[in-house]
Specification:
- The chain is mainly alpha-helical and 151 residues long.
- The chain folds into two domains: 56 residues, no CATH class; 75 residues, no CATH class.
- Strands 3-2-4 form a three-stranded antiparallel β-sheet, sandwiched between helices.
- Strand 2 and strand 3 form a beta hairpin.
- Helix 1 crosses helix 8, helix 5 packs antiparallel against helix 6 and helix 6 runs antiparallel to helix 7.
- The chain is elongated.
- The chain starts with a strand and ends with a strand.
- The mean pLDDT is 93.
């Protein structure tokens, strides 16, 4: 059974740009990130690419040749951080804070407004701890479903 560090999974998912897909090697536990750009270069047979891209291209080729050895990691969309923020807001016992946090979640720019509000109310550390616990719980379930051992 492959062993993975939950902290590595959390870090990867939280920092994953939209133009990257992340996978875990089921044999080694290594996490790899594949950019849309590298995938495109390889799939189109482009030979004119910058030198810095060589290692990523070789990693993608190894991935592509052994795709069954890899499992796609969940994305931030899978974890639904918006719902996490909503739940955090609803758990606040101060009615004013709860109202302001829920109001911040309305419309475009909700993520930025919410983070500004938790900072304003001195709840940033509590929010990030709450969010990390939600990520951890989700990833424990994900690991168990995919028969991955975790630490």
């Amino acid at each position: 059974m492959t062993k993975v560090k939950l902290s590595d999974l959390i870090d990867t998912i939280q920092c994953q740009p939209e133009e990257y897909e992340c996978y875990i090697n089921l044999k080694t536990g290594e996490i790899i990130e594949i950019s849309d750009e590298v995938r495109s270069v390889v799939e189109h047979g482009d030979e004119d690419y910058p030198d810095w891209m060589e290692d990523e291209i070789q990693m993608f080729i190894a991935f592509d040749e052994n795709e069954d050895d890899y499992l796609a990691l969940p994305t931030q969309n899978d974890l639904n951080e918006y719902k996490m923020m909503e739940n955090f807001a609803e758990e606040q016992t101060d009615a004013n804070i709860q109202t302001q946090l829920l109001k911040a979640l309305q419309g475009k720019g909700a993520f930025f407004r919410f983070k500004d509000e938790v900072t304003k109310f001195g709840l940033a550390a509590a929010w990030y701890q709450y969010r990390n616990e939600c990520y951890k719980e989700y990833l424990i379930d994900w690991c168990e479903e995919n028969e991955l051992e975790f630490e």
